[in-house]
Amino acid sequence: MKGRGLGFLIVLLIIGGLIGSLLGLALGNVWPVMNQTLPVIGFEPVTIDLSIIILTFGFTLQLNVASTIGLLLAFIIYFKL
Questions:
Q1: Cα gap 71→15, rounded to integer Å
Q2: Which residues contact 22 (CB under 8 A, 6 or more apart)?
Q3: CA-to-CA separations, 24 to 6, 40, 54, 61, in angstroms, rounded
Q4: How high is the pLDDT of residue 2?
């Protein structure tokens, strides 16, 4: 890993996913398979009312084929650096 931390990996994965997603949207008309969405990962928002504060937690991750390729490339780049 050469001194790279978990934070660097997370940032690299986010950038790889975003670039892949943008490329999937841009190339979706030429290669429709690149814009095909995969099943949604995550959970619906949950609200906790503690009378003085209301907390809402939720997480949803919707990937397409191109963003998955971007994530894999970012992961490979992380270990090659």
A1: 8
A2: none
A3: 27, 17, 37, 16
A4: 59
Which two structure tokens, joined as six digits, stand for 59? 């997480």
Cα separation, 11 vs 18, whole angstroms: 11
- Any long-range contacts for 29-36 (C-beta under 8 Å, 24+ apart)? 33/65, 34/64, 34/65, 34/66, 35/64, 35/65, 35/66, 36/64, 36/65
Which ranges of the chain have pLDDT less than 50?
A: 1
CA distance 67 to 75: 12
Q: What is the pTM of this model?
A: 0.76
Question: d(Cα 80, Cα 78) in Å, to the nearest integer?
Answer: 6
What token pair was written down for 17?
């996913």
Tokens of 78: 């992380």
